[in-house]
Design goal:
- Keywords: Glycosidase, Hydrolase, Periplasm, Signal.
- It is found in: Periplasm.
- Its main location: periplasm.
- One of its GO terms (cellular component) is periplasmic space.
- With about 775 residues, the protein is of the alpha/beta class.
- The protein has 3 domains: about 35-375, Alpha-Beta Barrel (TIM Barrel), CATH 3.20.20; about 390-590, 3-Layer(aba) Sandwich (Rossmann fold), CATH 3.40.50; about 660-775, Immunoglobulin-like (Sandwich).
- Helices cover about 30% and strands about 15% of the residues.
- It has 22 helices and 26 strands.
- The protein has a 6-stranded mixed β-sheet with strand order 11-16-15-14-12-13, with helices on both faces.
- Helix 20 links the parallel strand 14 and strand 15 (about 550-555).
- Helix 6 (about 140-155) packs antiparallel against helix 16 and helix 12 (about 310-320) crosses helix 13 (about 330-340).
- The longest helix has 17 residues, at about 30-50.
- The radius of gyration is 26 Å and the shape is globular.
- The protein starts with about 30 loop residues before the first helix and ends with a strand.
- It binds beta-D-glucopyranose (BGC).
- Beta-D-glucopyranose (BGC) binds near residues 163, 295 and 296.
Length: about 775
C-alpha cells in the first residue's frame, strides 16, 4: 500500500507528490474488457434474483440498534438474511460491519454483499476543518488529500461509501448547512467538488482504501427561501445551469459513483421525484452512470410535499430515476404492488438494482466482501499521528485573517496572554458540525494547543468570560448531538469580572468568540447572523482594559460582524478547525504558519444585504462606483438608504502577515480569434516581512451578452508561495472555455465581444485589462 508523503514542515508545498494526485475519473482507468465482465456478471446475477431481492438491493436502512450481538435477531438482521437490504449506514467499527456483512454473504440466498455508508464529511476520526473552512484554503492538493485521508480511515474501519461531497452553492448565511459546502462560487465549488471525488475514489475503487463518493444534494438545496432548512426553492433555469449546477456536474465529470437527491422542490416537484432533474439533466445531459440515492426519508417526505400517498410517491421516485431509498422503506413496502398494478415497470426496477450491483462490483465486493475493514489495521491507521499532522496543516491553511491592525498578530513568544471565551477549553466543539466519527474528547482545544506549543515561553491565563448565549434554552439547542457547551452557572457579572481580572494581568488578549459547533449544520438555520450578545458584551468589557485584542472567530457561516469588527485589533476566522484545532490556531497566531485563507463566501455588513454575493448582475441602475466605494446613497439607483452596497468582507478576501503587491496585467493578445489561448499575467511581489502564500485570483466580465452577465466571475486561481522579497510571474491561460455560459436557450457557448480581465488578491481588489474576442 502506498504511503502518503507527510510534510515535515507546515509550508505550502503540496503534500501529495505529483503522481499521487488523481486527475482523472476512476472509470477512465477501467478497460472495455472490465466493463464487459461487469455487465456479464450483473446480468447473470439479476437473472437469478427474485423481485423481492431486487427491491431489497434498493433499500438502505440506517443501522439503528443493529449491533454485533443482535445481527441475527434484529429486524434489520432478518431483512439482511432475506436479501432485503442493499446497504446500511451509520454503523461504526470494522468488527461490527464484518458481522453484518457475514450475515449478508453467508445467510442470504444469493450471498450479495452490502455496502456500508456514513457521513464522512470532513474527515473520519481525524477531522479536518468544516468544508467551508477547507474551501477557504483554495488549495486543491489539500482538498484532495483531506478526502484521501478520510477515505483511508473510513475504509480501514469498514466504510466503503461516503455521503460527500456536499456541493450546494449557497448565498444564504442564515442557512446552517453553508458550513458543509464550499460557499457561493460555482468555479471554486466545482474545483473542490472534483478534487473531493478524486480524493475519495482514487484511481481504483477496488483497492480497499478508496470509497464511493456521493455528491449531494441534487439539486439547489442551498437556495431555500429565507435560509430556512428544507424550504422551497424556485429559480430560473438560466440561473440553475450557470450558477448552481456546475459543482454537481463537476462531480459527475469526475466520475462520482453516486448522487443524493435533495429534500427541496425544483420547478414545483420535489427533487426526489423530479424526472427532469434525475433523468433528463443528470443522466441524459451529463451522462451520469452511477446510482441515485434519496436523502433521509426523502421519498416519504413527498407525502408532506403533497405529491400523494407512499405508494404514489415511491413510484414517482423510481420513475424519476432514484435507485436507492434511504431509510423510508417506500420502495420496500410498495414497489411490488405498484408493479402488479402497472404503475412502475420491471425494467425500471431492474435498472435500479443493476446500478447498485454495479457499484458493488466496482468496489470489488463480489471478490472479497470483507475488503473494507480490518480492526488491526484500523487501530494503526485511523487517527494516527501522520493523519493528525495533515489535519493540523490543512486547518492552519484554512484560516482567514480578516483584520490585523498594528500587527498584533503574530503574537510574541513571551509575556502573558489572556485566553478568553466560552469555548477555549472545549474539545467537543472543535470539529464543527457533521463529525460523526470524530474522537471529540481527543480534539485539541485552544488552551491545550497554546500550552502544548508555547507554554514554555508564554504564560497563558484563561477565563470563560461569557456563555455562548444569555438564553439557556437557546444554548441547549446550540449544543445538539452531544456537543456540550459547558454552560457556566455563574452570573453574567461574575463571568465578566473574572475575564477582566485575567485580562488585566496579561499583555495581550486572545478572545475566542462566535458560534458553537452546532449553531451551523443541518437544521441549524438562524434568523440573525451576529455573534450572540453575551459574547459581544464580553468583547466590550475587554476593550475597556485597553489591552490589544486578537479575536479568534469560531463560525460555520459568514457572520455579520459590523457591531464587533472595530473593537479587536485582529480577527482571525478559524471556522471549526477539526481534531487539531488548538494546535493549528497556535501555529497561526504565533506565526509558525502565515495565514493564507481567502473567504469562499461573502461576509455581509448586515442581514438586510442577504443575499449578497460577488458575482451579481449589474442591473439597469447600478450605483456609481465612487459612491459605492464611499458608501453614499443615490436616489433612483440600486442601493439602500441605510446600508452600503459593499459587503463587510468580500468573496476571495483574506490578509496575510506579509504584503503582496500586484503589477499591472500583461495580455499576450488583446484581439484573439476563435479557439486561441490568451495569456494574462501579473507579477506578484512579497513586499512585507514574512514568507507567505497568496491566492492569485482571475475574474472575467463578459461586457455584452445575449443575456445579462455577472459583473465578474472567478475563472481561475493559483496559490503561490513567496519568500520575503521574492517576486513571481503568475500566468493564466484563457481560452473560450472560460467564456462559455448557458444562454437563454440553455445552450452552452461563448459570444464574441469585449471581456474585462481582472486579476487580484480578492474579488474586490483587482487590476483590469481588456480583450476583444471574436469567433
Ligand atoms: C442529510 C444528508 C445526510 C443524511 C444521512 C440527511 O439528513 O440531509 O446530508 O447524508 O441525512 O445521514
Amino acid at each position: 500500500m502506498k504511503k502518503l508523503i507527510v510534510l515535515a514542515t507546515l509550508a505550502l508545498s503540496p503534500v501529495f507528490s505529483a503522481q499521487e494526485m488523481v486527475d482523472k475519473p476512476v472509470q477512465s482507468y477501467q478497460t472495455a474488457q472490465y466493463q464487459a465482465r461487469k455487465k456479464a456478471f450483473v446480468d447473470n446475477l439479476l437473472s437469478k434474483m427474485t423481485l423481492d431481492e431486487k427491491i431489497g438491493q434498493m433499500n438502505l436502512p440506517t443501522s439503528g440498534d443493529f449491533t454485533t450481538g443482535m445481527a441475527q435477531s434484529s429486524d434489520i438482521g432478518k431483512k439482511v438474511e432475506q436479501g432485503l437490504v442493499g446497504g446500511l449506514f451509520n454503523i461504526k467499527g470494522a468488527d461490527k460491519i464484518k458481522a453484518v456483512q457475514k450475515v449478508a454473504v453467508e445467510k442470504s440466498r444469493l450471498k450479495i454483499p452490502m455496502i456500508f455508508g456514513m457521513d464522512v464529511i470532513h474527515g473520519y476520526e481525524t477531522t479536518f476543518p468544516i468544508p467551508l473552512g477547507l474551501a477557504a484554503s483554495w488549495d486543491m492538493n489539500l482538498v484532495q488529500q483531506s478526502a484521501r485521508v478520510a477515505a483511508r480511515e473510513a475504509a480501514f474501519d469498514g466504510i466503503n461509501w461516503t455521503f460527500s461531497p456536499m456541493v450546494d452553492i449557497s448565498r444564504e448565511p442564515r442557512w446552517g448547512r453553508v458550513s458543509e459546502g464550499s460557499g457561493e462560487d460555482p468555479y471554486l465549488g466545482s474545483e473542490i467538488s472534483k478534487n473531493m471525488v478524486y480524493g475519495y475514489q482514487g484511481k481504483d475503487l477496488a483497492n480497499g482504501t478508496n470509497i464511493l463518493a456521493c455528491v449531494k444534494h441534487f439539486a439547489l438545496y442551498g437556495a431555500g427561501e429565507s435560509g430556512r432548512d428544507y424550504n422551497t426553492v424556485d429559480m430560473s433555469h438560466v440561473r440553475m445551469f450557470n450558477e448552481y449546477f456546475p459543482p454537481y456536474k463537476a462531480a459527475v465529470d469526475a466520475g462520482v459513483a453516486s448522487v443524493m437527491a435533495s429534500f427541496n422542490e425544483v420547478d414545483g416537484v420535489p427533487a426526489t421525484g423530479n424526472r427532469w432533474l434525475q433523468t433528463e439533466v443528470l443522466r441524459n445531459q451529463w451522462k451520469f452512470k452511477g446510482f441515485v440515492v434519496t436523502d433521509y426519508t426523502g421519498i416519504n417526505e413527498m407525502v408532506d410535499h403533497g405529491m400523494g400517498d407512499l405508494q404514489q410517491v415511491s413510484a414517482l421516485a423510481l420513475k424519476a430515476g432514484v435507485d436507492m431509498d434511504m431509510v423510508g422503506e417506500g420502495f420496500l413496502t410498495t414497489l411490488k404492488k405498484s408493479l402488479s398494478e402497472g404503475k412502475v415497470t420491471q425494467a425500471e426496477i431492474d435498472m435500479a438494482a443493476r446500478r447498485i450491483l454495479e457499484a458493488k462490483y466496482d468496489l470489488g465486493l463480489f471478490d472479497n466482501p470483507y475488503k473494507h475493514g480490518d480492526a488491526k489495521l484500523a487501530a494503526k491507521e485511523v487517527y494516527n499521528l501522520e493523519n493528525r499532522n495533515i489535519a493540523r496543516s490543512v486547518a492552519a491553511q484554512s484560516m482567514v485573517l480578516l483584520k490585523n491592525e498594528n500587527q498584533v498578530l503574530p503574537l510574541k513568544k513571551s509575556g502573558t496572554v489572556a485566553v478568553i471565551g466560552p469555548l477555549v477549553n472545549n474539545s467537543m466543539n472543535m470539529a464543527g458540525t457533521w463529525s460523526v466519527a470524530t474522537k471529540h474528547s481527543a480534539s485539541v482545544n485552544l488552551m491545550q494547543g497554546l500550552q502544548a506549543n508555547y507554554g514554555k515561553d508564554v504564560k497563558f491565563l484563561s477565563a470563560k468570560g461569557a456563555n455562548i448565549d444569555y438564553d439557556a434554552k437557546l444554548e441547549e439547542i446550540y449544543a445538539a448531538h452531544g456537543k456540550k457547551t459547558d454552560r457556566d452557572s455563574r452570573s453574567k457579572e461574575e463571568l465578566l469580572k473574572e475575564a477582566v481580572d485575567v485580562a488585566n494581568k496579561a499583555d495581550v488578549i486572545v478572545l475566542a468568540i462566535g458560534e458553537s459547533a452546532e449553531m451551523s449544520g443541518e437544521s441549524s438555520s438562524r434568523s440573525e447572523i451576529t455573534i450572540p450578545q453575551s459574547q459581544v458584551d464580553l468583547l466590550n468589557e475587554l476593550k475597556k482594559t485597553g489591552k490589544p485584542i486578537a479575536m479568534i472567530l469560531f463560525t460555520g457561516r459568514p457572520l455579520a460582524l459590523t457591531n464587533v469588527k472595530d473593537m479587536p485589533d485582529a480577527i482571525l476566522n478559524a471556522w471549526f478547525p477539526g481534531s487539531e484545532a488548538g494546535n493549528a490556531i497556535a501555529d497561526v497566531i504565533f506565526g509558525k504558519v502565515n495565514p493564507s485563507g481567502k473567504l469562499p463566501m461573502t461576509f455581509p455588513r448586515s442581514l438586510g444585504q442577504v443575499p449578497i454575493y460577488y458575482n451579481a448582475k449589474n442591473t439597469g441602475r447600478p450605483l456609481d462606483q465612487k459612491l459605492t466605494d464611499k458608501c453614499e446613497y443615490q436616489r433612483f439607483r440600486s442601493n439602500y438608504m441605510d446600508e452600503c452596497n459593499t459587503p463587510l468582507y468580500a468573496f476571495g478576501y483574506g490578509l496575510s502577515y506579509t504584503r503582496f503587491n500586484y503589477s499591472d496585467i500583461s495580455i499576450s493578445n488583446a484581439n484573439p480569434k476563435g479557439n486561441q489561448t490568451v495569456q494574462a499575467s501579473v507579477t506578484v511581489t512579497n513586499s512585507g516581512n514574512y514568507d507567505g502564500a497568496e491566492v492569485v485570483q482571475l475574474y472575467i466580465r463578459d461586457m455584452v451578452g445575449s443575456i445579462t452577465r455577472p459583473v465578474k466571475e472567478l475563472k481561475g486561481f493559483q496559490k503561490i508561495f513567496l519568500k520575503k522579497g521574492e517576486s513571481k510571474k503568475v500566468t493564466f491561460d484563457i481560452t473560450p472555455e472560460s467564456l462559455k455560459f448557458y444562454n437563454g436557450d440553455l445552450k452552452y457557448d461563448w459570444e464574441s465581444g469585449e471581456f474585462d480581465i481582472m486579476i487580484g488578491t480578492s474579488s474586490d481588489e483587482v487590476k483590469h485589462s481588456k480583450i476583444n474576442w471574436t469567433k
